[in-house]
Amino acid sequence: MKLAIAATVLRALPDKPSVGSRVDVLLRRMLVDSENAAANALEIWLAGSTSAGSARVNETMRALGLYDSEMYGGYEVERSLQAPIPIRVESQPRLEPGKYTTAWDLARLARAVHLASGGKGRLPRLGVTAAEARYLLWLLAHVGDRGKLGRYLAAPSAVLHKAGWNSTSRHDAGLVFWPGGVYVAAVMTWKAAGVRSSGDVLAGRVAAAAFERFRSVG
User: Fold this and answer.
1) Using CA atoms, how far apart are residues 10 and 124, in angstroms rounded to an integer?
2) Other C-beta atoms within 10 Å of 8: how many?
3) Backbone phi, then psi, for 53, in 5-degree steps?
4) pTM listed for this prediction
5) Average pLDDT for runs of 10 along the chain of length 218
6) Which long-range contacts link 208-216 to residues 24+ away (Cβ below 8 Å)?
7) Helices 50-63 and 2-11, interaxial angle, to 10°?
8) Residue 122 to residue 60: CA distance in whole angstroms
9) Which helix (H) or strand (E) segment is 175 a member of?
10) C-alpha 179: how far from its chain's center?
11) Helices 2-11 and 22-31 sit at what angle, rounded to 10 degrees?
12) Cα 51 to Cα 74: distance, rounded to the nearest angstrom
């Protein structure tokens, strides 16, 4: 959902944020560090409050044809500061009340950003320039978590992604670039008893299986 916040923020700007500006710093903290406080601050920057900012994010998702996701209010800051990045899950996730999404929507959002980097798709019509989309991809390329989609992918492939998690679920969605092209991968996992490493392994296997499939067909 943080990628949707970022896309909505870029819609509100005339061009990509200047390096070191408040919005640039918040976007980096939200996407690269997955900082919840930065996500909340960007929603407030968008519309004056997290609830109003969420409404703007939902409007962006609907404009992109994403109807199985809902952003409602801000993120829990205390939990995000105390809990380490979780490592596991399998099955259909139950997200905290008021927020939900699907792997399908996350995959389509990642695809929309990729298309926009070339001036194509719906995002440019919503006000996101190609330069802004490339800036967003650059941020995703600097996400440090390589244990999910990128677990079994080695150079020269590159994974541009954003992972998310809570106590019982996690997801990872993004773009895998390799010399033969680029593809979208998105995995969501869930377990009521809590998260462990198998969900990350599953994400890695899905991305690797897709890579082998696309490589085999050229």
Assistant:
1) 10
2) 27
3) -65, -40
4) 0.88
5) 97 97 98 96 98 98 97 78 44 54 96 98 98 98 91 94 84 95 95 81 96 90
6) 208/151, 208/152, 208/153, 210/176, 210/183, 210/185, 211/153, 211/157, 211/176, 211/178, 211/183, 214/180, 214/181, 214/183, 215/178, 215/180
7) 90
8) 10
9) strand 169-178
10) 23
11) 160
12) 7
- Residue 90 maps to which CATH number? 3.40.710.10
On the 0-12 / 13-18 / 19+ scale of CB atoms within 10 A, 91 is: middle
Backbone phi and psi for residue 205, each to the nearest 5 degrees, phi listed first: -70, -40
What the block records as the tokens of 190 is: 């869930």
Number of domains in the chain: 1
How many Å apart are CA 39 and CA 32, to the nearest integer? 12
Range of the domain at 23: 2-217
Q: Exposed (0-12), middle (13-18) or buried (19+): which is 9, by Cβ within 10 Å? A: buried
Tell me if the bond preceding 179 is cis, omega within 30° of 0. Answer: no
CA angle 206, 212, 214 (to 5 degrees): 100
Please state, as a whole number, how many other Cβ atoms lie within 10 Å of the Cβ of residue 179.
7
